[in-house]
């Protein structure tokens, strides 16, 4: 097996792992009553940008010659670093879901019995699920030796993040007020102690 085929397998396994982690949580939260849902159409567009960058473009790279002209030389170090980064992103993704429980949602929503989660990985950053997605995008950049498919995840998810984070923080302030202000003052958004 070539290193490139191995990279495609790791990328595909990571995507499957992502889905397997999320599926039970999607089933659980469907029963929860939503009391505040914002910007449904905007959310759909942003989720589509993320899916394009983290899913569709790399899938085309992995299964067709569509982006072959943008491939570049690949090393075992890149493969190892990309694989480890993807594994860490999956761990963090699983942990954020576990810590959030029924408070989790794909879009901007507040549930009937929504609680502000400040423990677990949320003790260190306010948005560790976004951190996990950025790690996935970074893993894709390292793992996929292609100038189009590699950075597509950072671009796609970066668009979602840039156009959602302000609205999400406003929703949390509207819902939790001073409790969220105090939490924001002691935690970073994505990277502990940095940002």
TrEMBL record:
<dbReference type="GO" id="GO:0016020">
    <property type="term" value="C:membrane"/>
</dbReference>
<dbReference type="Pfam" id="PF04140">
    <property type="entry name" value="ICMT"/>
</dbReference>
<keyword id="KW-0489">Methyltransferase</keyword>
<feature type="transmembrane region" description="Helical">
    <location>
        <begin position="6"/>
        <end position="23"/>
    </location>
</feature>
<dbReference type="GO" id="GO:0004671">
    <property type="term" value="F:protein C-terminal S-isoprenylcysteine carboxyl O-methyltransferase activity"/>
</dbReference>
<protein>
    <submittedName>
        <fullName>Protein-S-isoprenylcysteine O-methyltransferase Ste14</fullName>
    </submittedName>
</protein>
<keyword id="KW-0808">Transferase</keyword>
<feature type="transmembrane region" description="Helical">
    <location>
        <begin position="74"/>
        <end position="93"/>
    </location>
</feature>
<keyword id="KW-0472">Membrane</keyword>
<dbReference type="InterPro" id="IPR054851">
    <property type="entry name" value="Isoprenylcys_mtase"/>
</dbReference>
<feature type="transmembrane region" description="Helical">
    <location>
        <begin position="44"/>
        <end position="62"/>
    </location>
</feature>
<feature type="transmembrane region" description="Helical">
    <location>
        <begin position="133"/>
        <end position="163"/>
    </location>
</feature>
<dbReference type="InterPro" id="IPR007269">
    <property type="entry name" value="ICMT_MeTrfase"/>
</dbReference>
<keyword id="KW-1133">Transmembrane helix</keyword>
<keyword id="KW-0812">Transmembrane</keyword>
<dbReference type="GO" id="GO:0032259">
    <property type="term" value="P:methylation"/>
</dbReference>
């Amino acid at each position: 097996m070539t290193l490139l085929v191995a990279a495609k397998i790791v990328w595909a396994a990571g995507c499957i792992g992502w889905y397997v982690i999320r599926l039970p949580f999607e089933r659980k939260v469907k029963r929860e009553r939503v009391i505040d849902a914002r910007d449904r159409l905007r959310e759909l567009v942003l989720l589509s940008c993320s899916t394009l960058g983290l899913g569709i473009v790399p899938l085309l790279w992995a299964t067709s010659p569509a982006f072959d002209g943008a491939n570049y030389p690949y090393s075992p170090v890149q493969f190892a670093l990309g694989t480890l980064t993807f594994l860490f992103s999956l761990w963090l993704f699983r942990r954020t879901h576990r810590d959030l429980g029924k408070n989790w949602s794909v879009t901007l929503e507040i549930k009937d019995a929504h609680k502000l989660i400040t423990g677990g990985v949320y003790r260190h950053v306010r948005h560790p699920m976004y951190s996990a997605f950025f790690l996935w995008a970074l893993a894709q950049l390292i793992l996929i030796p292609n100038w189009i498919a590699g950075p597509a995840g950072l671009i796609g998810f970066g668009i979602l993040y840039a156009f959602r984070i302000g609205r999400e923080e406003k929703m949390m302030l509207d819902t939790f007020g001073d409790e969220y202000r105090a939490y924001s003052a002691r935690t970073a958004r994505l990277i502990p102690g940095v940002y």
